[in-house]
Amino acid sequence: MPGESKITRIYVKNTGEAPIISSFNTTDWNPSNASQYISLSWNFGDVPLQPLRVRPTNFTLTISPLIYGITTFSFKITVIGTLA
After folding, report:
1. C-alpha span between 38 and 55 (Å, rounded)
2. Alpha carbon of 19 to those of 12, 46, 52: distances in Å?
3. In the predicted model, is pLDDT for residue 43 greater than 90?
4. Which among 9, 6, 5, 7 has a CA at the least distance from the CA of 57?
5. Percent of the chain with pLDDT over 90
6. Which end of the chain is more exposed for a tag (fewer CB within 10 A), N or C?
């Protein structure tokens, strides 16, 4: 619904041998203009994730109150781990 947010919890695991920081990006929005009205954020934080540790992380999807003409949408999320 316009103006609302939805939170979904994921679990990020560092399967490597060194601490990582993490980021994400979104691609392949359908329809392509959906990204003008829909935003995604998360609370992973700035503290490096240590090897073999898991961090619960919330994604928050927010729909602009100004959205119009979009009743369904999709996009891809890529989570990226970078050595800290």
Report:
1. 25
2. 13, 12, 9
3. yes
4. 9
5. 99
6. N
Cα–Cα–Cα angle for 26, 31, 37, rounded to 5 degrees: 70
In the chain, domain spans: 5-83
Q: Do the Cβ atoms of 83 and 19 come closer than 8 Å?
A: yes
| Cβ partners under 8 Å of residue 71, min gap 6 | none
pLDDT classification of 18: cutoffs 50, 70, 90 = very high
pTM: 0.91
Q: How many CA atoms lie within 13 A of 68 on its CB side?
A: 1
Q: Which amino acid is at 13?
A: K
Structure tokens at 70: 């979009």
CA of 70: how far to CAs of 21, 25, 32, in Å? 34, 21, 10
